[in-house]
């Protein structure tokens, strides 16, 4: 091995002292989340002199949190022994963890504002795909973190190379490929932010408001009355000054602002690199992350756009990675990409020349539209229409008409866009209503296959195919049964005979 | 590259999962299903009734519609039992050389196919009813998430244990064969 470790990992090591701050923060977060309703009761509920309770409880909680944090900091050690990462922790109960190197997929870094200030790293040890629990260090010195990572990953690779000499050759050949794919410039960052799905930000904002609204209502704080009164006075005084029009302009602007700010913080100074057998992504403003996505862990690649993004030719590419056994945490990494060419480049890095092979396109049966139209559009519309007519409610009738037109059109577009592409190496799914969304799965990454037939589908000899992978399920709906069976038979054949490991 | 070769595949030459005999599950299991359905109807029916009772302050509603509610429940239960009964003969499994297939469902016909070399672990489970009738479930887990996990009910205890042993052995040999294949070429 060429790079000698300067740090001796065989001795017990503590985290950086900055970790105490983060542990305190974590404790507070957990406590606040747990007793938020109680706090709210104290602050807004009816009662006499509350301040005494508040201050004493605050002081007591703070003392507990501080002592617990400091104790847990001093009770935490890690070291490396026999190709395993040993961790000892726990305040009241001693917990010993050992993570064998071969279980470790990658080691990722993250820096929030505090860590950026002290130049420390949060280190995440990723053990996806094995039964091992995930683990992360709160704060490590930069050089220790980097050395730990290269130490673990080098050792891990060494043991893997020992398997075959041939593999070693490939690895050495591939190790020279260390390419910079691109850096997201500031103007492009703004473009990505502006073309974000702003309705999502709106939904997010509404969810936050709804949460607090229900919280206050739960504790008996009459929000409704307050709002009603407030709204009344506001309406009375300002309705003539066209506050309504301002509101109509202001609320969407707020949505857009929120989504732009969120996107920009997430993708700030995004750097996307090809490294040895994987990709590396750096991004983030307040919370700076450094992620690696090893090729073996990527189960499928997806990319998509939306109507706004299609104007600028912006796509977002997703690396769908295998999930870990314990948590169903979403392991998908998303990266905005500014040209279709770059997607092809990424796919070539991942799958080589295989991606250039021609794929055959197949469409989804028209019954996908017909059945959806009958059951979810026509029948509810007819019932709604009759009700509206019977009750002589014009608003209801208008609603039914809008519902009917909107969903008929969108279901039709959804059917027109639905397709799948097949060759002997990949299966690709295309879908979308407003945008387009693609998912590319190599056959050998499939875990299991499910075939479904509803009564309606049986009548027309159609079926749904669900392809389960370690990074989620891809469904191909409403295709001829014979075709579904062929997909199933070929998928099973590859899964059972292909010598490549799915991870 | 490594040993991987990729000759064109003749689709018609692939082993077809259609032309096989599905082994039915043991008929005794129907009693377990019926008991579970009855119990769950009693439980949720009771809960629903308690809910109605608590919101119906003046008891007018319950007095008036008591009979209809109970009738409704019974009709639902009968429909469910008929579906259960008709769907039972559709339940079945096949163990092939390299995978296991389980089919189920009357209204939505469902077939799940799991290759042995994708099995993460498998276990035999029994609830109280099954223990009384000497039945067991075989549960098979893959990395494909909860949607792709499989639970085959209505096996005898011996059968389930044997199947588990077989699958675990298969999983091991299938993946080790792969490795040998990898290294030899």
What do you see in this structure?
- The complex is a heterodimer of chains A (503) and B (185).
- By secondary structure, chain A is of the alpha+beta class.
- Chain A has 4 domains: 18-176, no CATH class; 194-267, no CATH class; 271-364 and 418-497, no CATH class; 367-415.
- Chain A contains 15 helices and 20 strands.
- Chain A has helices at 18-44, 51-74, 113-118, 142-161, 165-175, 186-194, 198-218, 223-238, 243-267, 307-312, 340-351, 367-391, 394-417, 455-459, 481-497, and strands spanning 77-81, 84-89, 95-100, 106-111, 120-126, 135-141, 179-183, 271-275, 278-283, 288-294, 298-304, 315-321, 333-337, 360-363, 419-422, 426-431, 437-442, 446-453, 462-469, 472-480.
- In chain A, the strands form 4 sheets. Chain A has a 7-stranded antiparallel beta sheet. A 7-stranded antiparallel beta sheet of chain A has the order 13-12-11-17-16-15-14.
- In chain A, α1 packs antiparallel against α2 and α7 (198-218) crosses α9 (243-267).
- Chain B has 185 residues and is of the alpha+beta class.
- Chain B folds into 2 domains: 29-87; 90-184, PH-domain like, CATH 2.30.29.
- In chain B, 48% of the residues lie in helices and 22% in strands.
- In chain B, strands 1-2-3-4 form a 4-stranded antiparallel beta sheet, with no helix packed on it.
- In chain B, β3 (99-104) and β4 form a beta hairpin.
- In chain B, α1 runs antiparallel to α2 (60-88).
- Classes of the chains: A alpha+beta (503), B alpha+beta (185).
- Chains A and B meet through α5, β18, β19 and α15 of A and β4 and α4 of B.
Q: How large, in whole angstroms, is the Cα Rg of chain A? A: 28 Å
In this structure, how is the largest beta sheet of chain A organized?
A: 7 strands, antiparallel
Q: What fraction strand of chain A? A: 15-25%
Question: Structural class of the helices, strands and pairings of chain A?
Answer: alpha+beta
Q: Helix and strand string of chain B, N-terminal first? A: EHHEEEEHEEH
| Average residue-wise pLDDT of chain B | 84
* Global outline of chain B: elongated
**For the record, what is the CATH homologous superfamily label of the largest domain in chain B?**
Pleckstrin-homology domain (PH domain)/Phosphotyrosine-binding domain (PTB)
Radius of gyration of chain B: 23 Å
Domain module count of chain A: 4
Residue runs with pLDDT of under 50 for 5 or more positions of chain B? 179-185
Low-confidence stretches of chain A: 164-176
How are the strands of the largest sheet of chain B arranged? 1-2-3-4
CATH architecture of the largest domain in chain B: Roll
């Amino acid at each position: 091995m060429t790079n000698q470790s300067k740090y001796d990992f065989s001795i017990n090591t503590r985290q950086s002292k900055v970790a105490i701050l983060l542990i305190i923060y974590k404790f507070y977060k957990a406590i606040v989340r747990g007793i938020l309703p109680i706090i709210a009761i104290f602050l807004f509920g009816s009662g006499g002199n509350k301040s005494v309770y508040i201050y004493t409880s605050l002081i007591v909680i703070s003392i507990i949190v501080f002592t617990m944090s400091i104790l847990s900091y001093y009770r935490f050690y890690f070291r490396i022994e026999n190709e395993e990462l040993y961790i000892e922790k726990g305040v009241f109960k001693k917990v010993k963890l050992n993570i064998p190197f071969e279980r470790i997929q990658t080691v990722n870094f993250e820096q929030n504002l505090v860590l950026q200030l002290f130049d420390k790293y949060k280190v995440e040890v990723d053990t996806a795909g094995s039964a091992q629990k995930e683990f992360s260090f709160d704060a490590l010195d930069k050089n220790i973190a980097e050395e730990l990572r290269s130490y673990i990953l080098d050792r891990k690779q060494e043991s893997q190379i020992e398997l075959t000499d041939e593999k070693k050759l490939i690895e050495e050949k591939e190790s020279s490929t260390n390419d910079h794919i691109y850096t997201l410039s500031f103007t492009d960052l703004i473009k990505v932010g502006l073309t974000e799905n702003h309705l999502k930000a709106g939904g997010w904002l509404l969810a936050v408001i709804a949460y607090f609204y229900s919280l206050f209502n739960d504790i008996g704080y009459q929000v409704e009355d307050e709002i009603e009164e407030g709204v009344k006075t506001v309406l009375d005084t300002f309705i003539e000054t066209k506050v309504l029009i301002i509101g109509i302009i202001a609320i969407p602007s707020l949505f857009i602002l929120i989504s732009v700010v969120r996107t920009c913080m997430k993708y700030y100074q995004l750097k996307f690199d090809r490294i040895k057998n994987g990709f590396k992504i750096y991004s983030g403003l307040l919370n700076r992350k450094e992620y690696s996505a090893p090729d073996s862990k990527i189960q499928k690649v997806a990319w998509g756009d939306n109507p706004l993004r299609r104007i600028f030719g912006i796509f977002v590419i997703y690396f769908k990675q295998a999930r870990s056994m314990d948590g169903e945490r979403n392991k998908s990494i998303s990266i905005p990409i500014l040209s279709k060419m770059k997607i092809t480049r990424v796919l070539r890095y991942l799958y080589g020349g295989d991606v250039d092979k021609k794929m055959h396109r197949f469409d989804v049966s028209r019954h996908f539209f017909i059945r959806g139209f009958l059951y979810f559009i026509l029948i509810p519309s007819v019932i709604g229409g009759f009700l509206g007519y019977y009750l002589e409610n014009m608003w209801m009738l208008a609603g039914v008409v809008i519902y009917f037109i909107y969903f008929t059109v969108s279901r039709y577009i959804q059917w027109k866009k639905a397709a799948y592409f097949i060759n002997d190496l990949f299966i690709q799914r295309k879908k979308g209503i407003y945008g387009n969304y693609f998912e590319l799965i190599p056959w050998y990454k499939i875990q299991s296959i499910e075939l479904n037939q509803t009564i309606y589908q049986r009548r027309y000899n159609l079926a749904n195919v669900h392809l389960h992978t370690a990074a989620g399920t891809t469904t191909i709906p409403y295709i001829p049964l014979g075709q579904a069976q062929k997909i199933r038979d070929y998928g099973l054949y590859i899964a059972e005979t292909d010598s490549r490991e799915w991870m | 590259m490594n040993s991987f070769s990729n000759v064109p595949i003749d689709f018609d030459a692939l082993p077809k999962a259609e032309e096989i005999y599905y082994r039915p599950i043991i008929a005794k299991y129907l009693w377990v299903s019926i008991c579970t359905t009855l119990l769950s109807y009693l439980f949720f029916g009771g809960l629903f009734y308690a809910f109605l009772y608590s919101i119906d302050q003046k008891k007018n509603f319950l007095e008036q519609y008591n009979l209809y509610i109970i009738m409704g429940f019974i009709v639902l239960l009968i429909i469910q039992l008929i579906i259960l009964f008709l769907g039972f003969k559709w339940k079945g499994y096949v163990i092939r050389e390299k995978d296991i297939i389980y089919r189920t469902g009357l209204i939505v016909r469902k077939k799940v196919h799991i290759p042995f070399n994708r099995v993460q672990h498998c276990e035999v489970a029994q609830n109280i009813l099954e223990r009384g009738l000497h039945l067991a479930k075989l549960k098979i887990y893959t990395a494909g998430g909860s949607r792709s996990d499989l639970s085959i009910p209505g096996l005898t205890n011996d059968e389930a244990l044997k199947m588990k042993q077989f699958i675990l052995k298969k999983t091991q040999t299938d993946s080790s064969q792969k490795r040998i294949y990898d290294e030899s070429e």
